[in-house]
Amino acid sequence: MKALIFSDIHGSENAMLRVDELIKKHNPDLIILLGDLLYHGPRNDLPLGYHPKGVIPLLNKYKDKIIAVRGNCEAEVDQMVLEFPCMSTYSEVFVDGLKLTLTHGHIYNEEKIVPGASIMLYGHTHIPVCYKKNDIIFFNPGSTSIPKGGNKASFGIYENKTLSVLGLIDEKQMLTLSI
């Protein structure tokens, strides 16, 4: 099973075009979207290439492979234009016998864990992390469009019971953890 993991696209068509290239290149079984897909939010500057209407068809063409959760910038109108569910606070997906808990990070995160979670995938901070603490794995792929903390735009990949963060542009491995 191969899954590509993206968070915090924030309506950047530029970032989404790169995401589209990565999906075509890697041909994942699953695409995990950890929220903040279309809107940039009042606390963020406009991302490069901000054009939510251009992001919509690029996401919708993968609707059969996408599992998405709601970010703090999602609104009900987003669900009206996206052809896959995107309004759950958290979701769970089973891959290779592992339960991955997906959330955006503004409600559930390292401080407040989804009950029963052992592998938490989340975004929101725009800062990639990948580590194990108290028998729980925490994984944040960073942001595709508005990286913070001196990081570059990034995404995640799950394959062969390994989680990795890679640079969005160069695919250079930044972090990795075998489960």
Characteristics:
alpha/beta; 5-stranded mixed β-sheet
Structure description:
The protein is of the alpha/beta class. It is 16% helix and 31% strand. The protein contains three helices and eleven strands; from the N terminus they run βαβαβαββββββββ. The protein has helices at residues 13-26, 52-60, 76-81; strands spanning 2-6, 30-33, 66-68, 90-95, 98-103, 119-121, 129-133, 136-140, 154-159, 162-167, 173-178. The chain has a six-stranded mixed beta sheet, with helices on one face. Strands 4-5-6-8-7 form a five-stranded mixed beta sheet, with no helix packed on it. α1 links the parallel β1 (2-6) and β2 (30-33). α1 (13-26) runs parallel beside α2 (52-60). The radius of gyration is 15 Å and the shape is globular. The chain starts with a strand and ends with a strand. The relative contact order is 0.20. The mean pLDDT is 97.
Walk me through the topology.
Elements: E1 2-6, H1 13-26, E2 30-33, H2 52-60, E3 66-68, H3 76-81, E4 90-95, E5 98-103, E6 119-121, E7 129-133, E8 136-140, E9 154-159, E10 162-167, E11 173-178
Parallel strand pairs: 1-2, 2-3, 5-6, 6-8
Antiparallel strand pairs: 1-9, 4-5, 7-8, 9-10, 10-11
Q: Extract low-pLDDT stretches.
A: none
Number of helices: 3
Radius of gyration over all CA atoms, rounded: 15 Å
Report mean pLDDT, rounded to a whole number. Answer: 97
By helix and strand content, what is the structural category?
alpha/beta
Shape: globular
- Which band does the percent of strand residues land in? 25-35%
**Extended strand count:** 11
Helix content: 10-25%
Spell the H/E element sequence. Answer: EHEHEHEEEEEEEE
The major sheet is characterized as: 6 strands, mixed
| Quaternary status | single chain
The strands making up the biggest β-sheet line up spatially as 3-2-1-9-10-11
Distance between the termini: 14 Å
